[in-house]
Design a protein that fits this description.
Elements lengths: L9 E3 L2 E5 L2 H13 L1 H5 L14 H21 L3 E7 L2 E12 L5 E8 L8 H14 L6 E6 L4 H10 L2 E12 L2 E11 L7 H8 L10
Parallel strand pairs: 5-6
Antiparallel strand pairs: 1-2, 2-3, 3-4, 4-5, 6-8, 7-8
Bound molecules: coenzyme A.
Length: 212
Amino acid sequence: MPARARPATLTLGDIRLLPLTWANGAKLAEVHERNREWLGMWEATGEGEQVRGSRGAMTRSYWAYVARHRREAAAGTALPWVIEIGRAVVGHVVIGQIAGVPSWSGTVGYWVDRDHAGQGIAPAAVALAVDFAFGHGGLHRVEAAIHPDNTRSLAVVGKLGFRDEGTRHRYLHVRGVWADHRIFALTREEASGGLVERWNQVRRPKARGAPS
Ligand SMILES: CC(C)(COP(=O)(O)OP(=O)(O)OC[C@H]1O[C@@H](n2cnc3c(N)ncnc32)[C@H](O)[C@@H]1OP(=O)(O)O)[C@@H](O)C(=O)NCCC(=O)NCCS
């Protein structure tokens, strides 16, 4: 099994990462449905089918996404979480496409409910997830693939000090076209000391997860 651990519950301030279950996956699908225009700008075809699908079709499709990530978590090829604040599901973070020997690598994906954007939730969640992946998960490398126009997501990896590795051409199918994506990566060595600690150093005082 590539990842050496299943996802655990992780906490930073009032942000909690909970392992993806059927119950919180249902809530995640609801939040995804409410945010389909916001998320559909950047999602690869197949994650939501929100561009072409009717409401019902979209919801079924995101269920397929939840089901796939539960299967992959059991197989050790994904570490999927829902992000909660209080008892509300506000987003999703996953280390997916996990490969074992020889690269011990994975790809981080993330989104937050539009109503909760701009509060530092995604960087906090990515920091927690990547620290877990490099620690209990046993991975050596995590990358993020970001559409060049997605300035908000570029800000997230920038805040956490991911290294720019350049462009992967026509990498993901987004809004009907094979779109170039910029690749950002970190190895375990580069993240020594921990991304949560790094985020603690750079976040604004009012950002979520900041100590009071
Ligand atoms: C990208 C995303 C996950 C960032 O999450 P977040 O928790 O808002 O992250 P941050 O709080 O660090 O904000 C990131 C940037 O969003 C922008 N932002 C700030 N306030 C905002 C608001 N109220 N609403 C929307 N965006 C805002 C800013 O550009 C900010 O960067 P800055 O802090 O350097 O100014 C979120 O915008 C999102 O879910 N977008 C749609 C899905 C997506 O793009 N996923 C990533 C695919 S690679």
